[in-house]
Amino acid sequence: MLTPISFFYVRHGQTDWNLERRCQGHTDIPLNETGIAQAHDAKARLVGIDIGTICCSPLGRARHTAEIVNMVLQRDIVVIEDLKESGFGEREGDLTGQWHLDWQQGATPRGAEVYRDFVERSIAGVNQALEQPGPILIVGHGGVYRSLVRFAGLNGVENLPNCLPLHHTPPQDPSGRWMVSELADNGTTTSRPD
């Protein structure tokens, strides 16, 4: 289960492999020019937002995004190993396709992380981030966020765009749903539809 604490989440900026729809996994592909610009846009949306700690994946694309965003936030950046994207083994660099769906159903490519293990690690990584002094901003990966949406009760978007800051508020009661709001250019929030 996801710890019921409000947090912000930003997927890293675009890389060339994102653009080509290649699975990056643990391969450390840097942000491209668009990704750097996206990170600066996220930075502008976070001006004036109360953030206590930034937590990020150890992979360069997430760390670089966190560093750009931190130009305005000026907070500690805590690197959390469990926030990194899934390892796809021999399939890293391959185009997303049927093999990726098969992986989610239990057909693990050679050298790849077992899907269920990745999901459990992702949720544990976010919970570890939520133990830091808040409010928390997590800078991570699309796959980690998708795990939260599918398996941790988070009412978010499965295909999170690069560098779109989202604010997540836990349900008011155990049977309720998480509220997800998008940060606008002026730092205000707009609720996203279910």
Provide a compact summary of the structure.
The chain has 194 residues and is an alpha/beta fold. It contains 6 helices and 7 strands.
Which keywords apply here?
single chain, 194 residues, alpha/beta, Rossmann fold, 6 helices
Characterization of this structure:
This protein is an alpha/beta fold and 194 residues long. It has one domain: Phosphoglycerate mutase-like (Rossmann fold, 3-Layer(aba) Sandwich). Helices cover 33% and strands 15% of the residues. It contains 6 helices and 7 strands. It has a 7-stranded mixed sheet. Helix 2 packs parallel to helix 3. 38% of the residues are buried. The mean pLDDT is 93.
Q: What's the number of structural domains?
A: 1
CATH class descriptor = Alpha Beta
In terms of DSSP E residues, the strand content is 15-25%
Distance between the termini: 20 Å
Helix and strand sequence = EHHEHEHHEHEEE
**The CATH H-level homologous superfamily:** Phosphoglycerate mutase-like
Rg from Cα: 16 Å
CATH structural fold name: Rossmann fold
Strand order of the largest sheet: 3-2-4-1-5-6-7
What's the total helix number? 6
